[in-house]
């Protein structure tokens, strides 16, 4: 799962800062290893090799950071550094992250664990880490200048605290925050309950919502953007580069979603209803939950949704802001719907040979093949079993199948629909249409003037029930 590489100290880093103090070279040699990840695919859950047991999460297009136990303390090593993230096949971005990837690895601990986190700065500027939502000593909260000195390039700081309450949290810088978060510096944190049977589900997924402004043909985000982001991502991946959420039939499924973008996201699940079972403030009491199909996740919030995977199929799961399910969007473009551009097409082609008429009948570009700048993606892409999906950005599928083993997260391929369960084209005639006649019980269900009663019978054509 994890490719490990040696940790090298740059010039002047022989004395490594621990909190506000210093240690010797001998002390620095006792740092835990800093595992690295160079794969963009979802990695298998990390079963705890030591410490107290828990039910691990699966990070969508991500991984969990291994640790070492030392004198009863769970020790992790995060390295803040420039990384290259493949956002989808055909596009890579120069980001900042942790341990080879953006977002950084998920940290998993158990309620009551004493945790020690070594944070080494390999960025060209100072940084810090805020442990978003955690209860901890004020000096470990990670706001540079307020709670601690900033971590200078080449230095290593240590954060140490007890994971006091179970729940789902995030981590991110609180130093030059606008730049560093716009460059992708963030990660997930899960504190499991002491009792592994508490809040237990069959499948437990997590990912972060993040956004970037990367001009087509370039590699590095514009960190001054406040509103006009053009890549909306699940864990710094865009559809069709986002893995599917694979579930077994009738599994109880939890999806933990953290939002570190600069806007809210109404996350919508098709085919099932869910409840919001947790927030960054903790688990919601069962009596306070109600069914939803969309959860609006505001800036800086986390929501853990739960549902029973009762219906087979490939179900869409996405942000319901339409422009957040597109890639490499242009802004400030006029609408061309209803505009006949044929008269100018020939003239424009003399100047721009590859120019195509777009938008006269709507915005669909799923079927178009047109040249793109290097290192960018079509706005709407991805092929499904019936053609172009015409989605990008914050979109994936929840794939529910029979007979999956507990730890089987492999993509099962496209769903094979039973005969008569796919929408079809009506080609005339009455054989495929339900009867529209008055019901036989005139007292209880007779049609009123101007109304009909719909009667549906088996054997009326495709998919009748």
What does this structure look like?
The chain is mostly beta strands and 465 residues long. Among the domains are: 17-164 and 176-186, Cupredoxins -  blue copper proteins (Immunoglobulin-like); 334-375, no CATH class; 426-465, no CATH class. The chain contains 4 helices and 27 strands. It has helices at 25-28, 177-182, 342-351, 442-445, and strands spanning 17-18, 21-22, 58-59, 68-70, 73-88, 91-98, 107-110, 114-121, 130-132, 156-162, 167-172, 187-192, 203-212, 231-234, 245-248, 252-259, 265-269, 275-279, 282-283, 294-297, 302-308, 313-319, 381-384, 387-391, 395-401, 435-436, 454-455. A hairpin with a 2-residue loop joins β23 (381-384) and β24 (387-391). Mean pLDDT is 84; it is low at 1-27, 365-369 and 441-465.
Structural class: mainly beta
Mean pLDDT: 84
The CATH level-2 architecture of the domain at 17-164 and 176-186 is identified as Sandwich
CATH superfamily of the domain at 17-164 and 176-186: Cupredoxins -  blue copper proteins
> How big is the Rg?
26 Å
Terminal-residue CA separation = 47 Å
What percentage of amino acids are in beta strands?
25-35%
**What's the story with the biggest beta sheet?**
7 strands, mixed
Pick out the low-confidence regions: 1-27, 365-369, 441-465
What is the level 1 CATH name of the domain at 17-164 and 176-186?
Answer: Mainly Beta
Please state the overall shape, judged from the principal axes of the Cα atoms. Answer: globular
Number of helices: 4
How many strand elements? Answer: 27
């Amino acid at each position: 799962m994890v490719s490990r590489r040696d940790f090298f100290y740059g010039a002047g880093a022989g004395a490594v800062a621990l909190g506000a103090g210093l240690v010797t070279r001998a002390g620095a040699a006792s740092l835990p290893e800093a595992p690295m990840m160079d794969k963009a695919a979802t990695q298998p859950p990390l079963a705890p090799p030591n410490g107290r047991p828990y039910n691990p999460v699966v990070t969508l297009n991500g991984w969990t950071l291994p640790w070492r136990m030392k004198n009863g303390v769970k020790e992790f090593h995060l390295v803040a550094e420039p990384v290259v993230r493949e956002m989808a096949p055909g596009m890579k971005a120069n980001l900042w992250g942790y341990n080879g990837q953006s977002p950084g690895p998920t940290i998993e601990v158990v309620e009551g664990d004493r945790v020690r986190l070594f944070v080494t700065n390999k960025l060209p500027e100072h940084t810090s880490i805020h442990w978003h939502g955690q209860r901890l000593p004020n000096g470990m909260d990670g706001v540079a200048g307020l709670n601690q000195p900033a971590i200078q390039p080449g230095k290593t700081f240590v954060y140490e605290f007890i994971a006091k309450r179970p729940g789902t949290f995030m981590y991110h810088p609180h130093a030059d925050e606008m730049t560093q978060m716009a460059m992708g510096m963030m990660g997930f944190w899960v504190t499991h309950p002491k009792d592994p049977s508490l809040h237990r589900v069959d499948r437990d997924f997590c990912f972060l919502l993040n956004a970037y402004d990367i001009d087509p043909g370039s590699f590095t985000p514009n960190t001054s953007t406040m509103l006009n982001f053009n890549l909306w991502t699940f864990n710094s991946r865009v559809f069709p580069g986002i893995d599917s959420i694979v579930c077994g039939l009738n599994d109880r499924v939890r999806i933990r979603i953290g939002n570190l973008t600069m806007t809210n996201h109404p996350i919508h699940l098709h085919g099932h209803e869910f409840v919001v079972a947790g927030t960054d403030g903790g688990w919601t009491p069962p009596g306070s939950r109600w069914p939803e199909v969309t959860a609006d996740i505001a800036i800086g919030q986390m929501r853990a949704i739960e549902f029973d995977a009762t219906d087979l199929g490939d179900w869409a799961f996405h942000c319901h802001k339409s422009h957040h399910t597109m890639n490499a969007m242009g802004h400030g473009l006029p609408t061309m719907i209803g505009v006949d551009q044929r008269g100018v097409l020939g003239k424009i082609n003399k100047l721009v040979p590859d120019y195509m008429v777009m938008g006269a009948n709507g915005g669909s570009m799923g079927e178009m093949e047109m040249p793109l700048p290097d290192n960018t993606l079509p706005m709407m892409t991805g092929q499904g079993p019936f053609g172009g999906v015409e989605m990008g950005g914050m979109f994936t599928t929840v794939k529910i199948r029979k007979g999956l083993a507990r730890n089987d997260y492999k993509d099962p391929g496209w769903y094979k629909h039973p005969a008569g369960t796919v929408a079809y084209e009506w080609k005339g005639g009455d054989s495929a249409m339900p009867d529209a006649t008055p019901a036989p019980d005139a007292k209880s269900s007779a049609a009123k003037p101007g109304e009909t009663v719909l009667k549906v019978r088996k054997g009326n054509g495709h998919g009748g029930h």
